[in-house]
TrEMBL record:
Cofactor binding summary note: Binds 2 manganese ions per subunit.
Family the UniProt entry places it in: Belongs to the arginase family. Agmatinase subfamily.
Binding residues for Mn(2+) 1: 149, 151, 153, 231, 233
UniProt binding sites for Mn(2+) 2: 126
Gene Ontology molecular function: any one: agmatinase activity
Name under which the protein is recorded: Agmatinase
Matches recorded under Pfam families: Arginase
Length: 305
């Protein structure tokens, strides 16, 4: 099985689009695999519009539009020459059973991470980041979190399944180090006096030059192992209408890609792209943005090698 030429040799944008970027679809975690794409089609913890269970498939389908370019602009290398990627498919769980979802996701993530693979998960609602953080922190200890979102997701809720309280619970469970964590693109209410994370709000990020934004992120994170979580509603609805809780005034797709691209010297050990709900989008705009961000993240991880 050839990884370096798998999708580069098949630029078709409408045939055989079963996996992300045409990566091999399988579950063998041997030495020929460096990074793993995992879909999690779950949206039972959402508080807004449902539909993110279709996000992983929407992102995969949209990724076909990115397969024709041998070297993704502006990178100067072929992804497969540095990073051999596998699409693991989706986590399977009993319909409507959130407890089973957490169990199956945790077991799958543990398996992938213990095999020393970089895990990039596609959602699904943002609650999924909490069980993923539990798995990743088992290997790396408390993580620095880089969180792109319109919302801080720090609601002080004891609800077991809530896509707005993951980053309230994660510090309490010792999964992330708040002193080295940062949230980007926020533009909704939070506790300004007691908030544990540094916040770069959307207006500030949009007004600053790229170097200033990246300096803030890198100074906060330092040399810590990083978990990067990207809620697609960090983007303005003009660039990502297909999501459950859209908020005007967000980042452009280009701005977000520039920031992500600038993180290549950080130690990103796992990542996710969440909250894509294709049904609220008339032209795959959101799915394409998410697929592009996912591909950019893979290049960022590859560039570090």
């Amino acid at each position: 099985m050839s990884f370096s030429n798998n999708f580069n040799n098949d630029p078709n944008t409408y045939a055989n689009i079963f996996s992300f970027m045409g990566f091999p679809l399988g579950r063998e975690l041997d030495d020929s695999v460096d990074a793993v794409i995992l879909g999690v089609p779950y949206d039972l913890a959402t508080s807004g519009r449902s539909g993110t269970r279709y996000g992983p498939n929407g992102i995969r389908q949209a990724s076909a539009q990115l397969r024709w370019e041998e070297k993704r602009w502006p990178w100067t290398f072929k992804l497969g020459d540095k990073l051999r990627c596998l699409d693991y498919g989706d986590v399977c769980f009993t319909d409507g059973d959130s407890e089973d979802l957490v169990s199956e996701l945790s077991e799958t993530a543990d398996k992938i991470i213990s095999a020393n693979k970089t895990l990039l998960s596609l959602g699904g609602d943002h609650f999924l980041t909490l069980p993923l953080l539990r798995s990743v922190s088992k290997r790396y200890g408390p993580l620095a979190l880089i969180h792109f979102d319109a919302h801080t997701d720090t609601e002080a809720s004891d609800a077991k399944y809530n896509h707005g309280s993951m980053f309230y619970h994660a510090p309490k469970e010792g999964l992330i180090d708040c002193e080295h964590s940062i949230q980007v693109g926020i533009r909704t209410e939070y506790d300004y006096e007691q908030h544990p994370f540094q916040v770069l709000n959307a207006s500030w990020v949009n007004e600053q030059d790229l170097g200033t934004v990246l300096k803030e992120i890198k100074q906060r994170v330092g040399n810590q192992p990083v978990y990067l979580s990207f809620d697609i509603d960090c983007l303005d609805p003009a660039f990502a209408p297909g999501t459950g809780t859209p908020v005007s005034g967000g980042l452009s797709a280009d701005r977000a890609l520039q920031i992500v691209r600038g993180l290549q010297d950080l130690n990103i050990v796992a990542a996710d792209v969440m909250e894509v709900a294709p049904a609220y989008d008339h032209a795959e705009i959101t799915s394409l943005a998410a697929a592009t961000l996912t591909l950019e993240l893979l290049h960022v991880i590859a560039a570090k090698r």
